Amino acid sequence: MNYDYDVLVIGSGPGGYVAAIRAAQLGLTVAVAERGSVGGVCLNIGCIPSKSIIHQAEIYRSRSKLEQMGVKVDASGFRYEDVFSASRKTADTLSKGVAYLLKKNKVELIAGAARLVSGNEAAVIGANGSERRARAGAVILAVGSRPRAIPGLEFDGTHILSSDDALMLKELPRRALVVGAGAIGMEFSHILNAFGSEVHLVEMADRVLPLEDGEVTAVVKRSFMKRGIKVHTSSKVVSHSIGGGCVSAVIEGADGGRSEVAADKIFVMTGRTPNTAGIGLEEAGVNVLPSGFIDVGDYYQTNVKSVYAIGDIVSSSPMLAHVASKAGEIAAERIAGHTPKSARIDPSEIPGVVYCEPQTASFGLTEEQALAQSLTVAKASFPFRACGKAVAADEAEGMVKVLADPSTKRILGAHIVGAGASELIHELLLARVSGLGLPEIALMIHAHPTLSEAVMEAARAVDGWAIHV
């Protein structure tokens, strides 16, 4: 059969566009079908605009440090609409950048919603209703996800908002109730509080960031509460009513006690759900789990040999942009006849970052997971308050924590909370991926004064010879 392309990628998010460019680099003819803006959710209404807003929130919040120097700051002219505009400009700039990269690599961009009609063909419906068929030797599904609603708190776009809705606000509410203390909920609670909103944060688990190490989450919760954020763990919203332009919600704790909270808006940030409905998976014969996720084998191949799935739609895969990108590279290399270094991403080598303040970053096992698996681990932590650069920069909140195999000192997990966590984590991850252990980090000279010295000291502390604590 003659195909129009070697590869058709459906979706141009961080998984799709990376897969397309990598396939083109390897000499394949490639097309990308995209129903929305180039760059997908991450670039347009996710990772990128949210980080722009977080950056501006931290600038705004840091005005108190100027006041400590005697500088008088008049914030009366502040307009959140300008923060929103800056975030949109950032997203638009990068979207155009991705479109340029696709063009540079001779990847054809097909505007429209794609639906599989077989394992090698898709119908792409344009905005004007026109249909175009695209046939390819292989198809990579990179359709991403959308905010997950919960029963009783369905999104209405006015009083009950999703994370997508939140990023498109031109004005923040005076009072906010955030449901869900995972990464998205924590980041947006940080934004709201930084810009002066009263925030109640509700989480069903017994701690914020329930997937992170317990010591790390304790630091973040303590910091949030110190800032005035009212944190309700082991709690849930059991009812709400809308009236007079605001929302009244009833929060129930684990002990059955109830309290009522008045808010201008409720932000439901309890995860995401895959965009696998209505894209022709059944027609193509691709197996879909009841949850909507897709099971894949090696190299992210589905049960249909010509169809690959990457990113948020893959079962048992964290919904992270960098995971989608790496999976896209692996699939593209496989389709091109190459043998990728790994058939699948090693879950223990995936870094995760939460961009609230203080930041958190981690990979591998948490201490709780090690205990649950009855693993004996060597562990140590080093506080930022003992790191000269952190103290000098007035960023002494937080720590570096490491878990290692007691005999080999191979890194089993690393957890950082505090300034620069999102960047510092990669020194430990590089050591892990390269087969190095904590002794190599402990012996390596680190510039002084730097935050990275805390990583070195934590590595030394495992063997009991940290110098500065």
List keywords for this structure.
469 residues, alpha/beta, FAD/NAD(P)-binding domain, Enolase-like, domain 1, seven-stranded mixed sheet, five-stranded parallel sheet, 15 helices, 22 strands, 32% helix
Explain what this protein looks like in three dimensions.
About 30% of the residues lie in helices and about 25% in strands. By secondary structure, it is an alpha/beta fold. The chain folds into three domains: about 5-145 and about 275-335, FAD/NAD(P)-binding domain; about 160-270, FAD/NAD(P)-binding domain, CATH 3.50.50.60; about 360-460, Enolase-like, domain 1 (2-Layer Sandwich), CATH 3.30.390.30. Helix 3 packs parallel to helix 7. The longest helix is centred in the first third of the chain and has 25 residues, at about 80-105.
Structural topology:
Elements: E1 5-10, H1 16-25, E2 30-34, H2 40-45, H3 47-61, H4 63-68, H5 80-104, E3 108-111, E4 113-118, E5 121-125, E6 131-141, E7 145-147, E8 160-161, H6 163-167, E9 175-179, H7 183-194, E10 198-202, H8 214-226, E11 230-232, E12 235-243, E13 246-253, E14 258-263, E15 265-268, E16 272-274, H9 281-284, E17 307-309, H10 321-335, E18 352-354, E19 360-364, H11 367-372, E20 378-383, H12 388-392, E21 398-404, E22 411-418, H13 421-433, H14 438-443, H15 452-461
Parallel strand pairs: 1-2, 1-6, 2-3, 6-17, 8-15, 9-10, 9-15, 10-11
Antiparallel strand pairs: 4-5, 5-6, 7-16, 12-13, 13-14, 18-19, 19-22, 20-21, 21-22
Helix pairs in contact: 1-10, 3-5, 3-7
